[in-house]
Amino acid sequence: LLNDDIWGILALSAAGEKSDSIEISSAKNFLLANQNQDGGWGYGVGTLSDTNDTAAAIMALLETGLSSTSAEIIKAIAYLKSAQNDDGGFCYDPNSSWGKASDSGSDAWIISAIYKLGQDPTGVDWTKGGKNPVDHLKSLKEPNGAFRWVASDPTNTAMTAYAAIALAGKFYPVAKLNQGLFELRIEGKNETICTTWAQGLTALDVVKNAATLCNYSYEIKETSFGPYLSKINNEEAAGMSGWLYLVNNIAPMVGANDYYLKEGDGVLWYYGDWGWQPIKLSSNNQQIDSGENLELTTEYFDGTNWLPLAAAAIKVKEQLYSTAGNGQVTLLLTAGSYKLQAEKTNFIRSNQIQILVGGKSKNISLEVEVEQGQVLGEKTGPEQNPSQDSIAFEIDKSSLNFGKLKPGQEATELIKLLNQGIKISVEGQVSGNELFIHHLKLNNQNWSDFQEKIESGQEKEIGVSLKIPTDYLGSGIKTGQLIFWASPSEN
Fold first, then answer.
1. Cβ(436)–Cβ(366) under 8 Å?
2. Is residue 294's pLDDT more than 50?
3. CA dihedral for 380, 352, 470, 261, sign (positive or negative)
4. By three-state DSSP, how is residue 77 classified?
């Protein structure tokens, strides 16, 4: 059979299986090996082509990553067009002795496939005799909302559900599990191991799926209580200490493999003991001038409220600062870029914040519409009256167009940064949607690792790239902001 491979692909994909898995890849190869000479597929190996299985096969193969411009898909489209009737509709099999009348089921499957191909089923490419498949499908609608199978039979309305999906502009799979991305942070014994966004159905899934993003290893043991995360990197559970998790800063009363994530959930894994409470670090400003005081606040979550945390340690280079009874501390920092965290014994290490002191910056707004739109960037206006005795730089482009990106695709645009003032050290900072925070790179480096020294009067070319993860299931417009921040360079 072939129809089981078609539906196997669609079902696995709907359940979140990756397109390059052995199961999906094997089914894909089997379908491609059994495409008929006319470009279509039947329900089984060696059977005559029919429009319904061909439309479903197109949707399944596109789900595996096959391009809509591939030779196999082009042949399949040609087969469907050859089967179109003059009323704009489609029958099950134009060579069948059972009749060639257009029916609502065939219309619906093909309309859905056309939408998945990114084409318009009402457009000229799918119009015949002045009619298109949407016109014909609508002509079969009954006053009560049902759709006849064929015009001559008002009693058979079994295709109504498929018609509703097609006329809604939907295709298969209509929906998928794990569509959302969830914020994940992993705090080890001595440092933060990972801060990212990852897909997953459960709180344990996100640890598995983020391993390649953050480059860590893990071990999961099967126990009588279910799967148990026993080790991340070299940090293994021992005694009363081990890997524990919180969701939205609260410890669920079920194992991580049984906690199903909901929209808006944030997952925090930490190595420590049961009952440790999370710390939150915040600042009055993330970008300040030299000589300006920075006020930091530490709080802990008691299960209901965030409360001030006294005696929390914040390390700035080699110096330690401690928060007062109100959880606050005031710092006076020299010019530079700082990544700060708060810690306290028997508490979970805080989030990390970046502070920029002194220097000047230019903001670039970012936007991307996955699979359908563009990534744009806009800079602030050029520096007015630049002086070689001060920080002054310009960016040559007001927008960056990454083009149309699908999951797995990457595009790079070049910008030129002209230093019109003193020698500077330039860093990047990104905020906004997780696509930009975790997948934007500057000169092939993660933006957080980027640093470029630029001499006075020198022009530097910077590559700005964005890659959509292969397993990214989101869509729509995403926005963010890129800041190029410059401070005086001493060497």
1. yes
2. yes
3. negative
4. helix
- How far is residue 315's CA from residue 312's CA, in Å, rounded to a whole number? 10
* Distances, alpha carbon 204 to alpha carbons 171, 209, 219, in Å: 30, 9, 11
Nearest to 244 by CA among 287, 185, 190, 199: 185
User: What is the token pair recorded at 355?
Assistant: 């502070």
Mean pLDDT of 342-358: 93
β-strand pairing of 347-348 with 277-283: parallel
Do residues 429 and 367 make contact, with C-beta atoms less than 8 angstroms apart?
no
User: Does the pLDDT at position 288 exceed 90?
Assistant: no
Helix or strand run (H / E) with residue 451: strand 451-454
Q: How far apart are CA 19 and CA 24, in angstroms?
A: 6
What is the SS3 assignment for 419?
strand
- Would you say the C-alpha torsion 117, 119, 124, 130 has a positive or negative sign? positive
Residue 388, helix vs strand vs coil: coil
Instruction: Count CB neighbours of 130 within 10 A.
Output: 9
Structure tokens that stand for 328 in this block:
């606050």
State CA 449 to chain mean position distance.
21
